[in-house]
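In this section we walk through a basic example: taking a raw amino acid sequence and producing a predicted 3D structure, encoded as discrete structure tokens. The instruction is simple. Fold the sequence below.
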Amino acid sequence: MIGERLVEDMTDAERERAQRVESVLPALRDAAEEADRTATFPTSHIALLREAGLLGLVVPEKFGGLGGTLRDLAAATYAMGTACPSTALAYFFHNTSASRGLLPLEAIDAGLFDEQEIPVVRAFAEKVLTRMADGIWLANFASESVKTSGANITIATTATKVDGGWILNGEKSFGCATGVADYYLTSAKLAGYDTAEGLATFFIPRDAPGVSVRAPWDGLGMRATANNGIRLENVYVADDEALGVPGAFTRMLTMSRGSFVGNQLAIAAVYTGCAQRVYDETLTATTNRKFADTGEPIASAPVHQVLFGEMTRQLETAYLWLRYQLAVETAEPPFKPKSEVFTQWRLGKGAVTEACFQVALGALKAGGTSAASMSGFAGRALRDLAMGLVMTFPAERGVLEVARIVTDARANELFATAPAEAVR
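The resulting token sequence is shown next.
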């Protein structure tokens, strides 16, 4: 199976879950070119993934899910990345929602919440997981256009308490499955708080009053992800659809094994799957085509030999970083402290995405003028993989943060709230 090219030592249970992923790949592959051309997420994929049980891939079995782990998710997004990177990316962001359920429950078990907080936190966490297991698509909206110097993601969207619930106002600039997901799982800052302790999470139905879609996203990246973002204008969210306990967000983050909220590695797997596909397609094309004068494969030319040697090196670099990061984030018992796992990820994310982009660049060169088309696999891969250079953070920022950690024992925070004046 394709997922085993990344996760080479699958257990029987992992292989069974990977077979579900394998079963949807032909449909994803068939729709990929048209989805890219029209910059439209194929709505048929929603039912496809739901019926395969894949919307609950990383949800524990006791909540109705398949019981997969980060290993399963990485194998799944990698395999989908070989078929349709846009779908793989949107699927990745759906699965990041699981952290909003798993991490709070772990924080409860670790004694980080008091007796009054536990029922509220547990109810919200279990709602996240059971909805995913039931086949509900969740779009995880955190990122915004507002930036602060000391954090990777800054939240300016506000949540004001009212009788029976909350009123949300703000704009989310990045989040796949806009207009596709059933619910937008949205981060906002509680009124009266100016630190990450005031961050909270809310379920917002896609068609809730006050929710609108931003202008269509015509980005240099995966075009069929429905990545437009949303605007929230006086959107009401009931108390039982919110996790508004102050400090709950930051306490749950302490439970992740390393990268971000514990699953960011799977986004790099999307890019690696895309890179593997363009490598394979380029190799096939240049070995099947012959020189008119000698009859030898085009791939045998010295320049192509150099290109394939470099593409192979870059692809193997991506695999090495990704597999090792997967090992340190999933090993039981852990063999590295969280600080070291986190540090490695800041380097690894950049190394993987830069290497994958170089594979696509090599494919463009190897294909020549005739293959330099946005309707071809090389052109699409080059654009798709360009997004990896900037998504979450560029390689240069990761290197800078690691240097700060090494020299100053200081790193950027994951989340921060925006000053009040920045929201106006």
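Looking at the output, two observations stand out. The domain at 265-393 is CATH 1.20.140.10 (Butyryl-CoA Dehydrogenase, subunit A; domain 3). The first strand starts at residue 138 and ends at 141. In the next section we compare this with other chains.
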